[in-house]
Amino acid sequence: LFATYCCRANTWQGEFPKSNIAEDGFVSTCPVSDFPPNAFGLKNMVGNVWEWTADDWNWPRGVRGEDAKVKKGGSFMCSEGFCFRHRCAARSQNTPDSSALNLGFRCASSDPPRTSKDSMKDE
């Protein structure tokens, strides 16, 4: 079952695209906290939804007139033989005005998480 893979993925189980047997309990997306984090505390690094990045598809500058952006990680619609083999580095592209059921984003911050002690210092 791919849901117990080291990256804790929500991916397609069954014969894609004919039958999703949903062994992990989900036919489509799952809540982010449904699978436990990996050793680094990261969740849903593969599967669930492809995630937009700020990177241009044609790195480093892109091609004039082309606005395709990179999406990474695969989605719940990926199966064992499809979607670049479930790698965190799986890379694909779409234009920024694209939308789909299996396309989303990840909130990120370069600031470390705040603790209750940090909050008390600010007061």
Automatic annotation (TrEMBL):
Residue ranges constituting the Sulfatase-modifying factor enzyme-like domain according to the UniProt record: 10-108
Region Disordered: start-end pairs: 93-123
Any one GO molecular function term: formylglycine-generating oxidase activity
InterPro entries: CTDL_fold, Sulfatase_Mod_Factor_Kinase, SUMF_dom, SUMF_sf
Compositional bias per record (Basic and acidic residues), positions renumbered to this chain: 114-123
GO CC terms: endoplasmic reticulum
Matching PANTHER family: FORMYLGLYCINE-GENERATING ENZYME (PTHR23150:SF19), SULFATASE MODIFYING FACTOR 1, 2 (PTHR23150)
UniProt similarity note: Belongs to the sulfatase-modifying factor family.
Protein name: Sulfatase-modifying factor enzyme-like domain-containing protein
Organism whose genome encodes this protein: Cyprideis torosa
